[in-house]
Design goal:
The structure is a single chain. This protein has an 8-stranded mixed beta sheet with strand order 2-3-4-1-5-6-8-7, with helices on one face. It has 5 helices and 8 strands; from the N terminus they run αβαββααβββαββ. Helix 1 packs across helix 2 and helix 1 crosses helix 5. With 165 residues, it is of the alpha/beta class. The chain has one domain: P-loop containing nucleotide triphosphate hydrolases (Rossmann fold, 3-Layer(aba) Sandwich), CATH 3.40.50.
Length: 165
């Protein structure tokens, strides 16, 4: 399996370039590295570790370069979390919001979606998508940081990133 170091470095680059109000929706199978990526984002935003996953607390709030909300929707599933959490209050344009199991959160645009997968040789692969607005600008800035931080460790074609073996 690919090193979590690359996943952490990708996350740090996202954190370093995160705009106020940035929303990062992470998706992918259990164990693929969503929490590692989220921890890297927190580090990039200047939040000192540890960064425990909010799987059981659902939300963790942090103070870094910007206020940050780390949300994990795994236990709640699609749609049901709206009664459990005040997610809308965190989508106020000030917080950077990181959502694990982000496919459970329906948004109308402006977010950055990142899917983590395992390739055929168990390497991690990343697919980033942003339709418009802040998410798209964030993705452009993050790509520049990824290239600087990772050099030849990552192949980039469009928005797909796969660690070299």
């Amino acid at each position: 399996m690919a090193s979590p170091t690359v996943t952490d470095q990708l996350g740090r680059a996202l954190g370093e370039t995160a705009p106020p109000g940035g929303v990062l929706l992470l998706s992918g199978p259990v164990g693929v590295g969503k929490s590692v990526l989220a921890s890297g984002v927190l580090r990039g935003l200047g939040v000192a570790p540890p960064h425990p996953s909010p799987t059981y607390t659902l939300v963790r709030l942090y103070r870094g370069r910007l206020p940050v909300a780390h949300i994990d929707l795994y236990r709640l599933g699609p749609g049901s979390f709206r009664d459990e959490l005040d997610v809308e209050d965190l989508l106020d344009g000030n917080h950077v919001v990181i959502v694990e199991w982000g496919e459970y959160l329906t948004r109308t645009g402006g977010e950055l979606r990142m899917r983590l997968e395992r390739g055929q040789r168990m390497e991690r692969a990343f697919r980033a998508e942003a339709e418009d607005g802040a998410g798209s600008r964030w993705l452009v800035a993050a790509r520049v940081q990824w290239r600087k931080a990772l050099g030849l460790l990552v192949d980039a074609e469009g928005s797909d990133w796969r660690e070299k073996r």
